[in-house]
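User: Hello, can you help with two protein structures?

Assistant: Certainly.
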Amino acid sequence: MTILSLSMLAVALHTAAIEEKCPWPESGPQQQRYHQQLSCYDQQLVTARRQLAQWQQHHQFVLQQHSQRTGRPAALNSFQAATESFQQLKEQHCRWQYQLQLPDVQLGAAYYKRCQLQLILQRAEQLESLAAR
């Protein structure tokens, strides 16, 4: 299985998990359904961001220890750069999905938050699997 195939599979699994936790409300006025959906995404984002932060802190700590032991900070510096790049990628990747839905701002916000959630969950899973090695 190629890296692209694995990445697409991970996105599909995260999408299914997000849809299970935050299904689109079936009834009620559209404004209320948007509000419920966005509220659910916000709750999920808080948890996902916390999980990602924990794994980032774990790797930061491990790499700092390695840097102090060996005197070689290259891995730590690369990890920090990768973390910053991920933040930029996440913002830009999700922004175009938001903009595509305009002028429907609420639908755009739902796409944006769902995109953020997918990427954060995928990154946290990657960092967790690296820690298990």
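That covers the first. Now for the second protein you mentioned:
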Amino acid sequence: MKSEKVGDATFETWTVDEVARAFDANEIVLIDVRTPQEYMFEHIEGALLMPLAFFKGDKLPDQGKKRIVFHCGSGVRSERVARAAIAAGVTPIAHMEGGFGAWKEAKKPFIGTNMATGAPQSVTPE
């Protein structure tokens, strides 16, 4: 994990493996900031959706027991949202380096769309 001081706040960048371990251990809330269309097509199972276009940092839940980690497609939007969360007073805050693309590249499981039926399906890359 990389960390950076932003004023009095701590901004963290987590690797895919760090996010996967913490998510599996129920230690974080993973928030997807992509569009609803991107999320519906494929997403990390259990990740919440809070699109960048509708993001309100002051509406985030308290991080008493679980840390918040944002992710998007490549890491650009999630970094932007994480910095906006810091500006809203939410700290520490993190985002996933490389986004969903890195998640898939690391062969982590996700929910995809069956192109024949349009139904969601579990995908476990090999």
